[in-house]
Amino acid sequence: MITTSPRLQLVRFDEVPAQPWRNGGGVTREFAAWPGAADWQLRLSVADIERDGPFSAFPGIARWFLVLSGDGVRLDHGGQPIDLRPGDAPHAFDGGQPPGCTLLGSATRDLNLMLKTPASGRLWPAEGPWQAEAGQRTLRWRGLFCAEACTLLTPADTLALPAMSLAWQAAGWVDGQDPAALTERWQLKPAARLPRAWWIALEN
After folding, report:
1. Is the same domain home to 146 and 83?
2. Could you please report the per-residue DSSP string of 139-166?
3. What sign does the dihedral 105-115-2-36 (CA atoms) show?
4. Which residue from 82, 36, 95, 88 is spatially nearest to 67, judged by alpha carbons?
């Protein structure tokens, strides 16, 4: 769903069709392509990698990658390999210089964020409340992806999120709201153990 409303949108894993790769090496589920599928500036997807092979090249795209489940992968950036497993920090790289990818064991399920330059953004663990950074550029889109069920608290909503789902919000002028509305505090409901979840931001 594409919207300019500041209200929250929810995308669930079982609502997103799997798109097989042309090389047969896995499938991708596209959770968000904003503002539209043909001219996106932000794309968030979950991929199942089933065999070794290079990533596709996306010139002009900044990428973030993290392993959600499975044994992990080894990404080779021109002879500089990095091993990534569940629990590791998101790995950022230039989409125009795609790494080779080798499975470290079984198939993996991974989260992928792509941002088209000159827009910028980031993906980071939701270990604390969402807080706008001083001096940051205008926030155009923000989201929360959770690998485990959680509850998102905002000034206007309390949203129960199932595992493997995305809650997102875009800046707009609907109902008198402006982009500043996206600076409102978001946080996960307190729990004995915070679920695995990540904040996502798109700025310009």
Report:
1. no
2. EEEEEEEESS-EEEE-SS-EEEE-SSEE
3. negative
4. 88
First to last CA, the chain: 22
Q: The tokens of 88 are what?
A: 């590791």
Model confidence pLDDT, tens digit, residues 144-182: 999 999 999 988 888 999 999 999 988 764 444 555 567
Q: Any idea what the Cα angle at residue 168 is, between residues 201 and 27, rounded to 5°?
A: 90
pTM: predicted TM-score of the whole model, two decimal places: 0.89
Q: Which of 195, 191, 110 is nearest to 144 (CA)?
A: 195
Residue 32, domain CATH: 2.60.120.10
Rounded Cα gap, residues 21 and 90, in angstroms: 23
